[in-house]
Amino acid sequence: MRLYLVVLAGVALAMPGAANACAIVSLGPEPSFARNKINAQRAIDRAYAIIDAEVVRAGSYPESTLIFAHRSFKGPDQQWFEVAETDSCSRSFEVNGERMRLFVYQREGVLTVEDPTVESRFIDRLLGSDRERDYPYFPGPRP
After folding, report:
1. Which of 63, 89, 98, 104 is placed for a possible disulfide with 140 were both Cys, Cβ 3.0 to 4.6 Å?
2. Cα dihedral across residues 81, 112, 123, 34: positive or negative
3. pLDDT at 90
């Protein structure tokens, strides 16, 4: 029975499309530096856009959120993105003025924001920009 579960887990890990995009399964030691670098490149490749952005009009399901891109690393040449919360993996935004680096994905014609499951320092190194120095997180004004 135990062998069956191990084989089943291995099959599930070998089929990334079958699992939920935001599901994280850790079955062992932390990934190596090389593996983290590969995972960071894959996260960048999968993104529709990567932007340093500010929430202009917050919204959560079913309302959309309007985001202003201060800087773009990847994606279309535009400053405004309207994103929606489409599932449990999508990020919702509740505070106008919140600023952060965002990964925008296009799912069936709808733009969503999801957090990549890779350590940010590996992504930042590949983008050539340290988010803590260049565009640190700001939670937005306090009520």
Report:
1. 98
2. negative
3. 86
Q: Which two tokens stand for residue 116?
A: 């990549």
pLDDT bucket at 19, cuts 50 / 70 / 90: very low
Give the residue carrying structure tokens 């399901």.
Answer: 61
pLDDT at 40: 95
**Sign of the C-alpha dihedral computed for residues 43, 47, 49 and 53 taken in this order:** negative
DSSP structural state of residue 54: E
Q: Is 15 helix (H, G, I), strand (E, B) or coil?
A: coil
User: What residues have CB less than 8 Å from 122, skipping those under 6 apart?
Assistant: 36, 37, 39, 40
pTM recorded for the entire structure = 0.78
Residue 95's contacts (CB-CB under 8 Å, 6 or more residues apart) are: 55, 58, 139, 140, 141
Summarised one tens digit per residue, pLDDT across range 84-138 is 998 888 888 999 999 999 999 998 889 999 988 888 999 999 999 999 999 999 9
Element of type H or E holding 7? helix 2-14
SS (H, E, C) 56-125: EECECCCCCEEEEEEEEEECCCCCEEEECCCCCCCCCECCCCCEEEEEEEEECCEEEECCCCCCHHHHHH
